[in-house]
Amino acid sequence: MTDSELLALIDSSPAQGHRALYDAYVKYVYAIIFHILRDCGSAEDVEDCLVETFTDVIEHIDNINGSYLKAYIGQSARNKAMNYYHMLKRHKQNTVAIDSVPEPSVKHVQEQLERKEMQERLLQSIHALGEPDATILIQKYYYGRKMAAIGKMVGLTANAAQVRCSRALKRLQKELADWRD
Length: 181
Fold this sequence. Notes:
Radius of gyration: 22 Å
Low-confidence stretches: none
Number of strands: 0
């Protein structure tokens, strides 16, 4: 069954179409997810991610062009698996035995407070830049998104978003120069 036929079946009979979509792509999606989660996830994590991937695809099925269905499903599986991967890694890093945690020193607490203050100041300064500069900086440096995706998000080309990012960084650097000293 071709992707166009799958989409037509989903339009005419959603339950049968969703089942056919699942049957056609479950091995493909499983392979992508397993490849990413094999070192940090359990079998349940892979299954949960698989279900979330198909749920996402089914929710957005109306927006998918028939010739790009496999690509969309593959990218969705990759994105979900990467989200799971990062979540699992964070969870494993944050899980430690209580006996292995040393008592915090005054210096350590002070450093943490200073770091938190610096982060808050930085975010305030970024937001003070206004839109779309604040969104561009946050998406690039906090979320690690590519300029092409950020450009689409704020209604600019990738090159225009890159130029805005560079200028915003220079303005931010000037504003924070006195604060660092």
